[in-house]
Amino acid sequence: MAARTGSISRRAFSPNWAARAAWAAFAVYLLYAASQLELTPARFVAGLEHGANFITRLFPPDFHRWELLLKGMVESLQIAVLASAAGVLIAAPLSLLAARNLMPAWATWPARAVMVLCRTFHPVIVAILFVKAVGFGALAGILALTVASVGFLGKLMTEAIEEISLKQVEAVRATGAPFMSVVTYAVAPQVFSRFVGFISYETDANLRNSTMVGIVGAGGIGGTLFAAFQRFDYDFVCAIVLTIIALIMAGEILTVRIKKVFAA
């Protein structure tokens, strides 16, 4: 009876003191970081007041300079499309080289290293480097977003290729077909629909990123937005932001439709 009482009195779940100590240390670090960054309640309240004043200056939006707005948006769209196309042309063969189920280790490791290097830095940082290298303009933006596309598409395409069924690959190889025939008839049919989804998503991402790289001088609507901020032309800033939102939403709708077409 005493033994049964002792077993009942024991707690079903013993406390994890290590986890509690970790959460306590994390909470202490949050307070320390907030104090170092001067995140005080007074500053937060002042920020809300300044933010409210800024929002009131944004409206109503000014679309009178629609020619400048249209030029910047068309340039951003062109940057996104060209960068996505160049990224696909580079990432597709690179993903084949990086696939462990198709290529030897001496080919996969360098290919994977290139993709990791392309994903290391944010597109804005890469755009700054290309602006210094090739000068201001759309070329720097295209090169920066191409690097980002290679890193993103290369990784996803490699993973898709590594997940294919090798039975079709072995069947085509058994006929004595060369490597490109194996890729065409055994690999491509299994990954094509997924590749379309990856490419459409990356094009949508490049459309968003093309507005950011323009802020550092890499072309597109971002340069127009940055110039409007410098002039304190906030009603025109609002017009640019609304146009960017509309363009991104249109790109999202187009991406969904493309996926449905190829899925069918």
Question: TL;DR?
Answer:
By secondary structure, this protein is an all-alpha fold. Helices cover 81% and strands 0% of the residues.
Can you offer a commentary on this structure?
The protein has 264 residues and is an all-alpha fold. The protein has one domain: MetI-like fold (Orthogonal Bundle), CATH 1.10.3720. It is 81% helix and 0% strand. The chain contains eleven helices and no strands. It has helices at 2-9, 17-36, 41-58, 66-98, 105-118, 123-134, 138-162, 166-174, 179-213, 221-230, 234-263. The mean pLDDT is 83.
| Share of residues in helices | over 70%
Any idea how many domains? 1
What form results from the Cα inertia axes? globular
Remind me, CATH topology? MetI-like fold
Catalogue the unreliable spans.
Answer: none
Largest sheet: none
The succession of helices and strands, N to C, reads HHHHHHHHHHH
Number of helices: 11
Q: Please tell me how large the radius of gyration is.
A: 26 Å
**What's the CATH class, please?**
Mainly Alpha
List the keywords.
single chain; 264 residues; mainly alpha; MetI-like fold; 81% helix
Task: Give a topology summary.
Blueprint: H1 2-9, H2 17-36, H3 41-58, H4 66-98, H5 105-118, H6 123-134, H7 138-162, H8 166-174, H9 179-213, H10 221-230, H11 234-263
Helix pairs in contact: 4-5, 4-7, 4-9, 4-10, 5-7, 6-7, 7-9, 8-9, 9-11, 10-11
